[in-house]
Amino acid sequence: MEKKVSVGILGNKAWVIGISGRPADPPRWPEDRIQVWLEFEKPATFSFGVNLPVRSYTRDEFLTAVRREGEHRLKVMLGERELRKSKDQKLKELDKIAGELIVLIGLE
């Protein structure tokens, strides 16, 4: 059986499923980093990675850093999703107005 280490991310259960080193790749990644992949219990298909500075960690320090970065990344992702929903709603409203104008001028 595959070992899993759980970590709580904003009240959600997640598991560390992979850890790897990544070399610097400027300009986006100017420094080496440790990449940690997380998989969430619900939905089971939801996963993402976080990047940590390269340094020595104790187990607790590492899991705290993973949790902190995971929470930050999840907040960003949720904010982006809300922004996308808002833009989609605005697009529907604008398309409705545009549709009315198409009918109004007989372009249809």
In short:
This protein is an alpha+beta fold. 44% of the residues lie in helices and 29% in strands.
Order of neighbouring strands in the sheet with most strands: 1-2-3-4
Order of helices and strands: EEEEH
Gyration radius from CA atoms, angstroms: 21 Å
Strand-residue proportion: 25-35%
Question: Would you tell me the structural class of the helices and strands?
Answer: alpha+beta
The tally of helices reads: 1
Total number of beta strands: 4
Please give the largest β-sheet: 4 strands, antiparallel
The helicity comes to: 40-55%
Folded structure, characterized:
- The structure is a single chain.
- By secondary structure, this protein is of the alpha+beta class.
- It has 1 helix and 4 strands, in the order E-E-E-E-H.
- It has a 4-stranded antiparallel sheet with strand order 1-2-3-4.
- The model has no long low-confidence stretch (mean pLDDT 93).
